[in-house]
Amino acid sequence: MLLSRKRKIDHQAIKTVVISRDERLLQWMRKIAAEHDQVFIDFEYISNFDFGLELITTKKMDLVLFDLSSFEANKMDLMMKILDQAENVPVIVLAQINDEACALEAIEKGAQDYLTKELLDPNQVFRAIRCAVLRHDMIRELRVLSMTDELTGVQNRRGFHHLAEQQMKLAIRAKRGLVLIFADVDRMKWINDAYGHQAGDMALAEATEVLRKTFRGSDIIGRIGGDEFAVLAIEAHKENVPILMSRLKYTLEEHNRQKKHNYELSLSIGAAWYDPTVSHVSFEDMMARADEAMYAHKLAKMQSYI
Known about the structure:
The protein folds into two domains: about 15-145, Rossmann fold, CATH 3.40.50.2300; about 155-305, Alpha-Beta Plaits, CATH 3.30.70.270. It has ten helices and nine strands. The longest helix is centred in the middle third of the chain and has 25 residues, at about 120-145.
């Protein structure tokens, strides 16, 4: 049961799910939560592992408290399932003294912290939760900075790969399609030579804007090279490719009608798709196929100029 407590206007309660088969622990957690309602932590108590796992994915939880010692078999397998599902949520492990080795292994795998059940006290629990959430937020901010392209504000190559791999896993699990589109800004060297590198940077920024106007906010856009972009369209299929290509072409034409520069922005594009109900391919395979299609388009355009 979720214990809803008062929230001050300038505080945001930390939504915490406790997964444990130890009824005494759950009773103790309920007791300290009721006695310390000023700490702004909302607890939800789950004794069934599968239900707890489902809750992590369906509700926007801020933290998971996982009682490792209350599960007798396959402890680390269960731990890995939680870490996989709660990739963007900090996890604190609760363990008995004789389970310290497992708790340390859980931290090596990605858990934020562990607490010894025999030594628990309310202030320690609340402090550990607050520190884990703050630490996780700081790590997430640093990760965002490290995965963002400074010039365009979209994902850099590292960030795009990271998010795309996540979406591949979700696509397999949900049996939904993905479309990967590569877009290369044509004549970048000429733009830099003729108008300067500031104009080249502007061309990259405008290409980014064209992509943002073309695709949905849920789709992933990345600058994966100097003048190369990639877009992963979520829940898209092979039959969507012509529609996406047509929409991109239209948006690019609309941009060029504004005649902002002495040149037209031009993109060479290629696409690959993934249908998990038909076959399983790696993300690297998808990238290779999209890259090949993009360069075929670029070559065809170059030959048309001859």
